[in-house]
Amino acid sequence: MSEKRILLASLLKPINDTRLYEKLGLSLSKISGVSIHITGYEAPIPAEAPANMHFHPIFRFSRLSAGRIAAQRAHYRLLQHIQPHMVIVSTHELLLPTLLYKARYSNVRIVYDIQENYSLNLRAQHNYSWPLKHLLALSIRTIEKMTAGSIDHFLLAERSYAEELPFLGDRYTFIENKYKAHQELSALATPVSLPTTGTLRLLYSGTIAEEYGVWEAIESAKQLQAIRPASKLTIIGYCANSDTLAKLRQACLALPFVELIGGDKLVPHRDILQQIEKSHIGLLPYRPNASTFRCIPTKLYEYMAHGLPIMIQENPLWQGIVAGNDAGRAVDFRRINIETLYHELSTTNFYKHGIPNAIYWESEEEKLLQIIIPLLSQVQEK
């Protein structure tokens, strides 16, 4: 085989994931003489993928099961089969089998794509019992520290990780989750204002969880009903917590103006984008939490790219982005005055200076290629 092979690997993300495939994968597929392999959780293979891109949907298991251990073995076998020259790992659990492969086949470069501060997320959120979440957090940080010296470069999805993660050294580059369009967007008519008649469509998209404010989104929609009865809230995304999902389904049955799309299964990203295009207000009612406080939600870039007015939880980082681009309002969803807020939103023009260029993926693609191409040139063809 004459081409150089890059494997992008994630244990929990689907093979058609926005960052794994649409951003990193498609950007790297532009490198001459390279074949791209993507392994991840089982999902439909993108029909429009370029010819030099190959998919290996080898993972399918519940989040807490022995299947996660078997998945690491499957990953190692795939490494031996593909024999990549570079592996970009997006899940901490795949670090050890990847470095075992590197020990056997030294002619390889390893890049760790850090999409989340996994250890902090476990400690700050409430998805597991106190002893279990701290044990898991400790094990993750131990693996990351043990393997850090053998990793050639780190990609950081958030700028805050440079301060939060003590094992990075100076081998990192910020590759943020900015918006990657499926096709060239037609110029949006700006400024944007809310419709004065008809249904007012609110949107909550992405990960469905209490920490991300799903109940605050529903409460806001309930209050808005008293002011503008022709209002509707769409909740679209995946909910990993079965108790939260059961309660959410019960809530939707009692509230006909709340629609749930997905819930127990991953929702194709294009379906989410279609809902963004149909909506009038995007909700980001994140509860204040150490795991999200210094991170920029990907959906913020998505909403802005489509000219969607935004209601976002008060946060100095987010407020600067939203206010600086006339994109919406920062509010405290715990003490919201919906009547005052609705009057302000309905009399305001948003995006008065157009959609900002800084939110798009192209700038991140350029940085990515500047890192990966030199690293790849250091290894010989197998």
From TrEMBL:
InterPro entries: Glyco_trans_1. GO terms for molecular function: glycosyltransferase activity. Residues 200-334 form the Glycosyl transferase family domain. Coiled coil: none annotated. The keyword Isomerase does not apply. Keywords: Transferase. This is Glycosyltransferase involved in cell wall biosynthesis.
